Amino acid sequence: MEFDVTSLAVSPLDYGPASTGKLRCLIVEDQVLIAMSLEAYLEDEGYAPAGPFQSNSEALAWLEGNTPDLAILDYKLNDGLCIELARTLRSRGVPFVVYSGARQAQGMPPEFEGAPWIEKPCPRQVFLDVLTGLVPRTARRRRPG
């Protein structure tokens, strides 16, 4: 017996609310439990999470039709380093934080220059403080709380 599951698939454009008045934060993290925690942190703080996406290809597909207000990137994903994601976000002026188990090293690609780098694990409040620091003051008024 075969099932048609195509109607159950969610389009990448369906992730995250389009205009809720909340700041939309892209989550790109390939470890499911960490991704779920990040999503919960963001929702608790009044952000509108977009994703989480587990690969560069999923996140880049979403970015074809969307632009977040800020982003959280894991440096090493299942399909490679997130260099192209960082490049795309920079080209649009979207601030991002790298949240990774990898240490920030000398000679990192220029796409990561100046981006905050947080090593996993870290306390929730430290993470949220860094994320809040990325939000331009004019956009902070949109976020509840």
Judging by the overall fold, what is the CATH architecture?
Answer: 3-Layer(aba) Sandwich
- State the low-pLDDT regions, or none: 1-18, 141-145
Helices, by number, come to: 5
For the secondary structure, the number of strands is 7
Molecular structure report:
The chain contains five helices and seven strands; from the N terminus they run E-H-E-H-E-E-E-H-E-E-H-H. It is α/β, with parallel strands linked by helices. The chain has one domain: Rossmann fold (3-Layer(aba) Sandwich). It has a five-stranded parallel beta sheet with strand order 2-1-3-6-7, sandwiched between helices. A two-stranded antiparallel ribbon has the order 4-5. Strand 4 and strand 5 form a beta hairpin. The N terminus and C terminus are likely disordered.
Short structural summary:
Helix content is 31%, strand content 19%. It is of the alpha/beta class and 145 residues long. The chain is globular and about 35 Å long.
Question: Which features would summarize this protein structure in a list?
Answer:
alpha/beta, Rossmann fold, 5-stranded parallel sheet, 7 strands, 19% strand, globular
Compile the SSE list and pairings.
Blueprint: E1 24-28, H1 32-44, E2 48-53, H2 56-63, E3 70-73, E4 76-77, E5 80-81, H3 83-91, E6 96-100, E7 117-119, H4 124-134, H5 137-140
